[in-house]
Amino acid sequence: MKILVTAATTLEIQPFLQWLAHESQPVSAQRFRIAHCEIDILIAGIGMMHTAFSLGRYLAAHRPEIALQAGIGGCFGHHWELGSVVMVEKEYLADLGAEDNHQFKDLFDIQLWQPSQPPFTNDALVNSFAGLPFLPHLQKTTSVSVNMVSGSAATIARLEHKYRPDVESMEGAAFHYACLMEQVPFLQLRSLSNYVEIRDKSKWKIPLAVKSLNETLVQTVETLTARVSTAHKKL
Prior knowledge:
The chain is 34% helix and 30% strand. The strands form 2 sheets. Strands 5-11-10-6-12 form a 5-stranded mixed β-barrel. It is globular. The chain has 5 helices and 12 strands. The model has no long low-confidence stretch (mean pLDDT 95). By secondary structure, the chain is α/β, with parallel strands linked by helices.
């Protein structure tokens, strides 16, 4: 089985990379082998533009059977505990569109895109989780992808009113779009590092979020590789 693990930055998956260095056989600088699985690492860059380019170039040359995106992100509700890890079911492009007299309208609102135009379901990029041999026991969430991290009351209120999101990131929608277009089963893991509120980095819990993200990522990859090995033994 070929597995792609992608992240915006090395920082977000550094502990996972250290685990790979000890538990796998390196094939190349960015490819590792565990039992019957090949694991490719793609550091795609921050934001949707970098992610789309990096994923597009990778998918033009490779065909993974599963793609995993791992990253940290903000959460909208204070009922979420920082450091929690979730999996994203639904992604919205939350700042691609037009301003109309202080009102934001996305591309569906201004009819440049039509609802459920592939690969969208209505106006969202939805992961059905089909084709995945294993699904972690994590909360399924709705996320918005933005080019500018939200830090004003007006912007936050707009996003909450329009999309009812749980999570905010800068790369998720590009990942969902690429995998849906290429029909690659995928899973986006997000660890909650901060609340989406007026910006105050002193309240952020990035080390905690990175720790819990990587623990979940290691467990997910361990389970996938173990299941593949078991399936091969039965052949």
